[in-house]
Design a protein that fits this description.
The chain has 342 residues and is α/β, with parallel strands linked by helices. It folds into two domains: 1-96 and 243-342, Isopropylmalate Dehydrogenase, CATH 3.40.718; 108-240, Isopropylmalate Dehydrogenase (3-Layer(aba) Sandwich), CATH 3.40.718. Helix content is 42%, strand content 18%. Strands 2-1-3-12-11-4-5-10-8-9 form a ten-stranded mixed beta sheet, sandwiched between helices. It has a two-stranded antiparallel sheet with strand order 6-7. Strand 1 (4-9), helix 1 and strand 2 (33-38) form a beta-alpha-beta unit. Helix 5 (145-161) crosses helix 6 (179-194), helix 7 runs parallel beside helix 8 (226-240) and helix 9 (277-294) runs antiparallel to helix 10 (297-315). The longest helix has 19 residues, at 297-315. The structure holds 1,4-dihydronicotinamide adenine dinucleotide. 1,4-dihydronicotinamide adenine dinucleotide (NAI) binds at residues 14, 18, 70-73, 83, 243-244, 259, 262-268, 274-275, 278, 322. The site of 1,4-dihydronicotinamide adenine dinucleotide has 21 residues, from loops.
Length: 342
Protein backbone atom coordinates (compact mmCIF):
# COMPACT_ATOMS: atom_id res chain seq x y z
CA UNK A 1 0.00 0.00 0.00
CA UNK A 2 1.27 3.48 -0.87
CA UNK A 3 2.40 5.35 2.27
CA UNK A 4 0.07 7.98 3.70
CA UNK A 5 2.06 11.15 4.24
CA UNK A 6 0.68 13.54 6.83
CA UNK A 7 1.77 16.30 9.16
CA UNK A 8 1.45 15.48 12.85
CA UNK A 9 0.91 18.37 15.27
CA UNK A 10 0.96 17.28 18.90
CA UNK A 11 -0.51 20.52 20.20
CA UNK A 12 -0.65 21.70 23.81
CA UNK A 13 -1.98 20.47 27.15
CA UNK A 14 -3.28 16.90 26.71
CA UNK A 15 -2.27 17.08 23.01
CA UNK A 16 1.03 15.18 23.28
CA UNK A 17 -0.56 12.45 25.46
CA UNK A 18 -3.49 11.73 23.17
CA UNK A 19 -1.39 12.07 20.02
CA UNK A 20 1.13 9.53 21.32
CA UNK A 21 -1.71 7.09 22.03
CA UNK A 22 -3.16 7.49 18.53
CA UNK A 23 0.22 7.01 16.84
CA UNK A 24 0.77 3.82 18.90
CA UNK A 25 -2.63 2.45 17.80
CA UNK A 26 -1.98 3.34 14.14
CA UNK A 27 1.42 1.59 14.34
CA UNK A 28 -0.11 -1.51 15.90
CA UNK A 29 -2.79 -1.54 13.16
CA UNK A 30 0.01 -1.38 10.53
CA UNK A 31 -1.34 1.81 8.96
CA UNK A 32 1.38 2.87 6.49
CA UNK A 33 1.67 6.39 7.88
CA UNK A 34 4.66 8.61 7.19
CA UNK A 35 4.26 11.31 9.83
CA UNK A 36 6.10 14.61 9.56
CA UNK A 37 5.99 16.27 12.99
CA UNK A 38 5.49 20.03 13.10
CA UNK A 39 4.79 22.46 15.87
CA UNK A 40 1.99 24.97 16.48
CA UNK A 41 0.68 26.84 19.51
CA UNK A 42 2.48 27.09 22.83
CA UNK A 43 4.78 24.23 21.78
CA UNK A 44 5.97 26.35 18.83
CA UNK A 45 6.45 29.41 21.05
CA UNK A 46 8.50 27.40 23.57
CA UNK A 47 10.68 26.15 20.70
CA UNK A 48 11.42 29.79 19.84
CA UNK A 49 9.32 30.09 16.69
CA UNK A 50 6.10 31.91 15.88
CA UNK A 51 2.88 30.56 17.34
CA UNK A 52 1.81 29.33 13.89
CA UNK A 53 5.08 28.79 11.99
CA UNK A 54 5.06 29.23 8.21
CA UNK A 55 6.82 25.87 7.83
CA UNK A 56 3.91 24.11 9.58
CA UNK A 57 1.46 25.68 7.14
CA UNK A 58 3.72 24.94 4.17
CA UNK A 59 4.08 21.29 5.20
CA UNK A 60 0.30 20.85 5.45
CA UNK A 61 -0.05 22.49 2.03
CA UNK A 62 2.53 20.06 0.66
CA UNK A 63 0.94 16.87 2.02
CA UNK A 64 -2.65 18.15 2.01
CA UNK A 65 -3.20 16.21 5.23
CA UNK A 66 -2.64 16.67 8.96
CA UNK A 67 -3.66 15.16 12.27
CA UNK A 68 -3.64 17.82 14.93
CA UNK A 69 -3.79 17.85 18.72
CA UNK A 70 -5.51 20.79 20.44
CA UNK A 71 -3.77 24.16 20.76
CA UNK A 72 -4.29 26.52 23.69
CA UNK A 73 -5.57 30.06 23.03
CA UNK A 74 -5.15 32.64 25.80
CA UNK A 75 -8.44 34.14 27.04
CA UNK A 76 -9.10 37.88 26.69
CA UNK A 77 -5.51 38.72 25.73
CA UNK A 78 -2.43 37.39 23.94
CA UNK A 79 -2.08 35.77 20.53
CA UNK A 80 -5.03 34.96 18.27
CA UNK A 81 -6.20 31.35 17.95
CA UNK A 82 -3.81 29.02 16.15
CA UNK A 83 -6.76 26.80 15.28
CA UNK A 84 -8.66 29.61 13.61
CA UNK A 85 -5.42 30.82 11.95
CA UNK A 86 -4.74 27.41 10.48
CA UNK A 87 -8.27 27.01 9.14
CA UNK A 88 -8.06 30.42 7.50
CA UNK A 89 -4.51 30.02 6.14
CA UNK A 90 -5.44 26.72 4.48
CA UNK A 91 -9.00 27.76 3.61
CA UNK A 92 -10.42 24.73 5.43
CA UNK A 93 -13.94 26.06 5.15
CA UNK A 94 -15.96 22.99 6.16
CA UNK A 95 -15.79 21.53 9.64
CA UNK A 96 -17.38 18.10 9.93
CA UNK A 97 -18.26 16.72 13.34
CA UNK A 98 -20.07 13.40 13.58
CA UNK A 99 -21.79 12.94 16.93
CA UNK A 100 -22.90 9.37 17.61
CA UNK A 101 -24.04 7.28 20.55
CA UNK A 102 -21.47 4.64 21.43
CA UNK A 103 -22.14 1.17 22.70
CA UNK A 104 -21.05 0.93 26.34
CA UNK A 105 -21.19 4.70 26.91
CA UNK A 106 -24.38 5.25 28.85
CA UNK A 107 -26.05 8.62 28.34
CA UNK A 108 -29.59 10.00 28.47
CA UNK A 109 -30.16 9.09 24.79
CA UNK A 110 -29.31 5.94 22.87
CA UNK A 111 -29.77 6.73 19.22
CA UNK A 112 -27.94 9.96 18.56
CA UNK A 113 -26.51 10.13 15.05
CA UNK A 114 -25.99 13.72 13.96
CA UNK A 115 -23.43 15.18 11.58
CA UNK A 116 -22.61 18.82 12.25
CA UNK A 117 -21.31 20.92 9.37
CA UNK A 118 -19.83 24.20 10.56
CA UNK A 119 -18.74 27.09 8.35
CA UNK A 120 -15.14 27.57 9.39
CA UNK A 121 -13.88 30.85 7.94
CA UNK A 122 -16.13 33.76 8.85
CA UNK A 123 -18.97 34.93 11.14
CA UNK A 124 -18.05 36.42 14.51
CA UNK A 125 -14.90 34.27 14.38
CA UNK A 126 -13.42 36.77 11.94
CA UNK A 127 -11.81 38.36 14.98
CA UNK A 128 -12.57 41.90 13.80
CA UNK A 129 -12.98 43.69 17.12
CA UNK A 130 -12.71 47.33 17.81
CA UNK A 131 -12.69 49.76 20.71
CA UNK A 132 -14.84 52.62 19.41
CA UNK A 133 -14.19 54.70 22.49
CA UNK A 134 -13.16 53.61 26.01
CA UNK A 135 -15.96 51.47 27.39
CA UNK A 136 -17.54 50.85 23.98
CA UNK A 137 -16.32 47.86 21.98
CA UNK A 138 -17.66 46.11 18.91
CA UNK A 139 -17.19 42.79 17.13
CA UNK A 140 -18.00 42.42 13.48
CA UNK A 141 -19.90 39.44 12.13
CA UNK A 142 -18.87 38.79 8.55
CA UNK A 143 -20.97 36.78 6.12
CA UNK A 144 -20.21 36.64 2.42
CA UNK A 145 -22.51 35.19 -0.19
CA UNK A 146 -19.60 33.23 -1.67
CA UNK A 147 -18.74 31.51 1.64
CA UNK A 148 -22.39 30.89 2.57
CA UNK A 149 -23.12 29.29 -0.83
CA UNK A 150 -19.87 27.32 -0.66
CA UNK A 151 -20.63 25.72 2.72
CA UNK A 152 -24.27 25.04 1.81
CA UNK A 153 -23.23 23.32 -1.41
CA UNK A 154 -20.60 21.33 0.48
CA UNK A 155 -23.14 20.22 3.08
CA UNK A 156 -25.74 19.11 0.55
CA UNK A 157 -23.10 17.26 -1.48
CA UNK A 158 -21.88 15.55 1.67
CA UNK A 159 -25.44 14.61 2.61
CA UNK A 160 -25.96 13.03 -0.81
CA UNK A 161 -22.65 11.15 -0.66
CA UNK A 162 -23.42 9.84 2.83
CA UNK A 163 -27.07 9.10 2.03
CA UNK A 164 -28.29 11.41 4.78
CA UNK A 165 -31.92 12.50 4.62
CA UNK A 166 -32.26 15.94 6.13
CA UNK A 167 -30.35 19.17 6.78
CA UNK A 168 -31.43 21.63 9.47
CA UNK A 169 -29.95 25.11 9.67
CA UNK A 170 -29.83 26.79 13.09
CA UNK A 171 -29.82 30.58 12.84
CA UNK A 172 -30.77 33.81 14.54
CA UNK A 173 -32.07 35.61 11.45
CA UNK A 174 -34.90 37.09 13.48
CA UNK A 175 -32.27 39.32 15.13
CA UNK A 176 -29.31 39.22 12.71
CA UNK A 177 -31.52 39.67 9.70
CA UNK A 178 -28.76 40.58 7.27
CA UNK A 179 -25.93 38.17 8.16
CA UNK A 180 -27.88 35.11 9.32
CA UNK A 181 -30.51 36.05 6.76
CA UNK A 182 -27.89 35.63 4.03
CA UNK A 183 -26.77 32.29 5.50
CA UNK A 184 -30.26 30.75 5.37
CA UNK A 185 -31.05 32.37 2.04
CA UNK A 186 -27.98 30.71 0.48
CA UNK A 187 -28.77 27.31 2.00
CA UNK A 188 -32.34 27.56 0.73
CA UNK A 189 -31.17 28.45 -2.79
CA UNK A 190 -28.83 25.45 -2.96
CA UNK A 191 -31.55 23.18 -1.59
CA UNK A 192 -34.20 24.34 -4.05
CA UNK A 193 -31.95 24.45 -7.09
CA UNK A 194 -29.85 21.30 -6.75
CA UNK A 195 -30.98 19.13 -3.83
CA UNK A 196 -34.79 19.21 -3.49
CA UNK A 197 -34.67 15.47 -2.65
CA UNK A 198 -32.96 16.17 0.69
CA UNK A 199 -35.29 17.45 3.40
CA UNK A 200 -34.42 20.91 4.56
CA UNK A 201 -35.65 23.08 7.40
CA UNK A 202 -34.50 25.98 9.58
CA UNK A 203 -34.84 26.60 13.30
CA UNK A 204 -34.01 29.60 15.43
CA UNK A 205 -30.97 28.42 17.34
CA UNK A 206 -32.36 28.81 20.86
CA UNK A 207 -35.38 26.64 20.05
CA UNK A 208 -33.08 24.27 18.13
CA UNK A 209 -30.90 23.78 21.22
CA UNK A 210 -33.94 23.04 23.34
CA UNK A 211 -35.10 20.43 20.84
CA UNK A 212 -31.62 18.91 20.71
CA UNK A 213 -31.56 18.22 24.44
CA UNK A 214 -35.19 17.02 24.45
CA UNK A 215 -34.94 14.60 21.53
CA UNK A 216 -31.77 14.59 19.41
CA UNK A 217 -33.08 11.74 17.25
CA UNK A 218 -35.16 14.26 15.26
CA UNK A 219 -31.94 15.68 13.74
CA UNK A 220 -29.89 14.18 10.94
CA UNK A 221 -27.44 16.88 9.78
CA UNK A 222 -27.00 20.38 11.16
CA UNK A 223 -25.59 23.22 9.06
CA UNK A 224 -24.32 26.12 11.13
CA UNK A 225 -22.35 29.32 10.83
CA UNK A 226 -19.02 29.43 12.64
CA UNK A 227 -19.83 30.44 16.24
CA UNK A 228 -23.09 28.49 16.41
CA UNK A 229 -21.22 25.46 15.10
CA UNK A 230 -18.63 25.83 17.82
CA UNK A 231 -21.17 26.03 20.63
CA UNK A 232 -23.61 23.43 19.32
CA UNK A 233 -20.75 20.93 18.75
CA UNK A 234 -20.00 20.89 22.48
CA UNK A 235 -23.70 20.69 23.32
CA UNK A 236 -24.02 17.65 21.04
CA UNK A 237 -20.86 16.14 22.56
CA UNK A 238 -22.70 16.26 25.88
CA UNK A 239 -25.46 14.10 24.38
CA UNK A 240 -23.12 11.18 23.65
CA UNK A 241 -20.65 11.14 26.54
CA UNK A 242 -18.69 14.38 26.34
CA UNK A 243 -15.76 15.93 24.54
CA UNK A 244 -13.66 12.80 24.82
CA UNK A 245 -15.71 11.06 22.12
CA UNK A 246 -16.36 13.61 19.37
CA UNK A 247 -13.98 13.80 16.40
CA UNK A 248 -13.68 16.43 13.73
CA UNK A 249 -12.32 17.30 10.32
CA UNK A 250 -11.56 20.69 8.79
CA UNK A 251 -11.78 20.29 5.04
CA UNK A 252 -10.94 22.59 2.14
CA UNK A 253 -10.54 22.14 -1.60
CA UNK A 254 -6.82 21.41 -1.29
CA UNK A 255 -6.40 19.55 1.95
CA UNK A 256 -7.75 18.62 5.35
CA UNK A 257 -6.76 18.84 9.01
CA UNK A 258 -8.27 16.30 11.39
CA UNK A 259 -8.66 17.19 15.06
CA UNK A 260 -10.90 16.41 18.01
CA UNK A 261 -13.60 18.89 18.98
CA UNK A 262 -12.10 19.24 22.45
CA UNK A 263 -9.40 21.69 23.52
CA UNK A 264 -6.10 21.28 25.35
CA UNK A 265 -7.87 20.51 28.68
CA UNK A 266 -5.28 22.22 30.92
CA UNK A 267 -7.13 20.92 34.01
CA UNK A 268 -6.06 17.34 33.29
CA UNK A 269 -2.93 17.86 31.17
CA UNK A 270 0.12 15.80 32.10
CA UNK A 271 -1.87 13.44 34.34
CA UNK A 272 -2.14 10.62 31.81
CA UNK A 273 -5.93 10.46 32.16
CA UNK A 274 -7.16 12.17 28.97
CA UNK A 275 -9.39 10.20 26.65
CA UNK A 276 -7.55 9.66 23.35
CA UNK A 277 -10.72 8.42 21.62
CA UNK A 278 -11.78 11.73 20.05
CA UNK A 279 -8.41 12.12 18.36
CA UNK A 280 -8.36 8.43 17.42
CA UNK A 281 -11.79 8.82 15.81
CA UNK A 282 -10.46 11.90 14.00
CA UNK A 283 -7.61 9.70 12.74
CA UNK A 284 -10.14 7.16 11.49
CA UNK A 285 -11.98 9.98 9.68
CA UNK A 286 -8.63 10.90 8.13
CA UNK A 287 -8.14 7.35 6.84
CA UNK A 288 -11.66 7.31 5.36
CA UNK A 289 -10.95 10.66 3.70
CA UNK A 290 -7.73 9.28 2.14
CA UNK A 291 -9.56 6.08 1.12
CA UNK A 292 -12.15 8.20 -0.72
CA UNK A 293 -9.49 10.40 -2.32
CA UNK A 294 -7.51 7.41 -3.56
CA UNK A 295 -10.52 5.20 -4.07
CA UNK A 296 -8.62 2.57 -2.06
CA UNK A 297 -10.67 -0.05 -0.21
CA UNK A 298 -7.65 -1.34 1.72
CA UNK A 299 -7.34 1.96 3.58
CA UNK A 300 -11.04 1.85 4.37
CA UNK A 301 -10.47 -1.63 5.81
CA UNK A 302 -7.75 -0.28 8.10
CA UNK A 303 -10.11 2.47 9.27
CA UNK A 304 -12.79 -0.14 9.99
CA UNK A 305 -10.31 -2.32 11.84
CA UNK A 306 -9.45 0.51 14.24
CA UNK A 307 -13.09 1.53 14.59
CA UNK A 308 -14.14 -2.03 15.43
CA UNK A 309 -11.32 -2.27 17.98
CA UNK A 310 -12.30 0.88 19.89
CA UNK A 311 -15.99 -0.03 19.74
CA UNK A 312 -15.14 -3.46 21.16
CA UNK A 313 -12.99 -1.89 23.89
CA UNK A 314 -15.91 0.33 24.95
CA UNK A 315 -18.35 -2.56 24.80
CA UNK A 316 -15.94 -4.49 27.08
CA UNK A 317 -16.16 -1.60 29.54
CA UNK A 318 -12.64 -0.31 28.88
CA UNK A 319 -13.12 3.38 29.58
CA UNK A 320 -11.26 6.48 30.67
CA UNK A 321 -12.49 8.53 33.62
CA UNK A 322 -14.51 11.05 31.60
CA UNK A 323 -16.73 8.09 30.57
CA UNK A 324 -17.03 6.76 34.10
CA UNK A 325 -14.15 4.26 33.81
CA UNK A 326 -10.80 4.10 35.54
CA UNK A 327 -8.34 3.68 32.70
CA UNK A 328 -5.60 6.14 31.87
CA UNK A 329 -4.74 7.27 28.34
CA UNK A 330 -2.09 4.58 27.72
CA UNK A 331 -4.14 1.77 29.26
CA UNK A 332 -7.08 2.61 27.00
CA UNK A 333 -4.77 2.72 23.96
CA UNK A 334 -3.44 -0.72 24.97
CA UNK A 335 -7.00 -2.05 25.29
CA UNK A 336 -7.72 -0.87 21.72
CA UNK A 337 -4.48 -2.40 20.44
CA UNK A 338 -5.33 -5.75 22.05
CA UNK A 339 -8.61 -5.79 20.10
CA UNK A 340 -7.19 -4.94 16.67
CA UNK A 341 -7.08 -8.60 15.67
CA UNK A 342 -10.72 -9.44 15.98
P1 LIG B 1 -11.52 21.77 26.66
O1 LIG B 1 -12.20 21.03 25.58
O2 LIG B 1 -10.04 21.77 26.63
O3 LIG B 1 -11.99 21.18 28.09
C1 LIG B 1 -13.32 21.24 28.56
C2 LIG B 1 -13.52 20.13 29.61
O4 LIG B 1 -13.55 18.85 28.95
C3 LIG B 1 -12.39 20.06 30.63
O5 LIG B 1 -12.91 19.73 31.88
C4 LIG B 1 -11.51 18.94 30.12
O6 LIG B 1 -10.78 18.26 31.12
C5 LIG B 1 -12.53 18.01 29.45
N1 LIG B 1 -11.90 17.29 28.33
C6 LIG B 1 -11.62 17.82 27.11
N2 LIG B 1 -11.05 16.89 26.35
C7 LIG B 1 -10.96 15.77 27.07
C8 LIG B 1 -10.45 14.46 26.82
N3 LIG B 1 -9.90 14.13 25.65
N4 LIG B 1 -10.50 13.54 27.82
C9 LIG B 1 -11.06 13.85 29.00
N5 LIG B 1 -11.57 15.06 29.31
C10 LIG B 1 -11.52 16.02 28.35
O7 LIG B 1 -12.09 23.25 26.63
P2 LIG B 1 -11.59 24.56 27.37
O8 LIG B 1 -11.17 24.25 28.76
O9 LIG B 1 -12.66 25.52 27.12
O10 LIG B 1 -10.33 25.06 26.55
C11 LIG B 1 -8.97 24.81 26.93
C12 LIG B 1 -8.07 25.37 25.85
O11 LIG B 1 -8.25 24.64 24.63
C13 LIG B 1 -8.33 26.85 25.52
O12 LIG B 1 -7.08 27.48 25.38
C14 LIG B 1 -9.04 26.80 24.18
O13 LIG B 1 -8.84 27.94 23.42
C15 LIG B 1 -8.41 25.57 23.56
N6 LIG B 1 -9.24 24.91 22.54
C16 LIG B 1 -8.60 24.43 21.44
C17 LIG B 1 -9.30 23.77 20.47
C18 LIG B 1 -8.55 23.22 19.31
O14 LIG B 1 -7.32 23.15 19.34
N7 LIG B 1 -9.21 22.84 18.25
C19 LIG B 1 -10.76 23.55 20.57
C20 LIG B 1 -11.32 24.05 21.81
C21 LIG B 1 -10.59 24.72 22.74
Amino acid sequence: MKPIKAVLIEGDGIGPEVTRAVVAIFNAACVPMEWTPHKAGLAALSAGSEVLPAKTIDAIKEYGLALKGPCTTPIGKGFTSVNVGLRKALNLYAAVRPVRSLQGVKTRFENVDIIIIRENTEGLYSGIENEVTPGVVTCMKVATEAACLRIALWAFRFATHRKRKKITVFHKANIMKVTDGLFINCAERIHKKDYPNIDYNTLIIDAGCMRLVQDPSQFDMLLLENLYGDVVSDLCAGLVGGLGVVPGANIGDHGAVFEAVHGSAPDIAGKGIANPLALLMSGVMMLNYVADERDDVSIKKLADKIKNAYNQALADNCKTRDLGGEMGTDAFAKAVIERLGG
